[in-house]
Amino acid sequence: MTQSVSPALLPVEPGKSGCPINMTMELLGDRWSLIVLRDLMFSPNTHFRELLGASMEGIASNMLAARLAKLVDAGLLTRDNDPSHRQKVEYHLTEAAIQLVPLITELGAWGARWLPTSPELAIRARLLAEGGPELGARFMAELRDIHLRRLPAPQHGVLAELTAAYAELARAEEESKQGSGDGPPAGTTTP
Q: How far apart are CA 43 and CA 34, in angstroms?
């Protein structure tokens, strides 16, 4: 069975083969593309400086700029003027990027199962995987509202639940470090 050519296909160069796995890897298989998409999915950050400053992996500014441009050119992100500031732009997920949620969920669940990950960073993928297609569909609907319709994130939606679970585990991990002597004693500050 062949796939019909659709005007909705992403504007990317033909790959080394027409294999859908190869084409996907050529588009997303570099060191940073999925991380940038993850950050836009799971955080409220839409500006360059926000994405750069919140990067746990420490992406360099030139690399972030290159990946954002690549993802915009590929049709996975839009680059829009920020209505609140003339010199800022916002990056938003497109429908094609939002439909990567099940893939990113499975990648995260696989990594949490087979790799030495930290509980607080694995919780979102684990909860999405455990919630099954229904939770994934609700999350994708929220992302459509946030990124396509530019509505504020709901206070009690899937993203809020995932963020709260992450924050709770991160707080517990910090308290555990302080109690075990790995961090500063409670109530003290470090220079």
A: 14
The count of other CB atoms within 10 Å of the CB of residue 170 is 15
Q: Tell whether the torsion through CA atoms of 32, 57, 48 and 152 is positive or negative.
A: positive
CA angle 100, 94, 129 (to 5 degrees): 25
**How far is CA 55 from its chain centroid?**
11
Find the angle CA(170)-CA(111)-CA(148) to the nearest 5 degrees: 75
CA distances in angstroms from 166 to 42, 92, 136, listed in the order given: 11, 23, 17
Contact between residue 105 and residue 125 where contact means Cβ atoms under 8 Å apart = yes
DSSP E strand stretches across the chain: 77-81, 89-93
pTM of the complete model: 0.84
Residue with tokens 């027409």: 18
CA dist 93 → 16, 30, 80, 115, 177 (Å): 26, 18, 11, 28, 36
Virtual torsion, Cα 118, 136, 102, 123, nearest 10 deg? 0
CB hemisphere CA count around 185 (13 angstroms): 1
CA dist., res. 119 & res. 154, Å (int): 25
Per residue in 83-126, pLDDT (tens digit) is 787 788 999 999 999 999 999 999 999 999 999 999 889 999 99
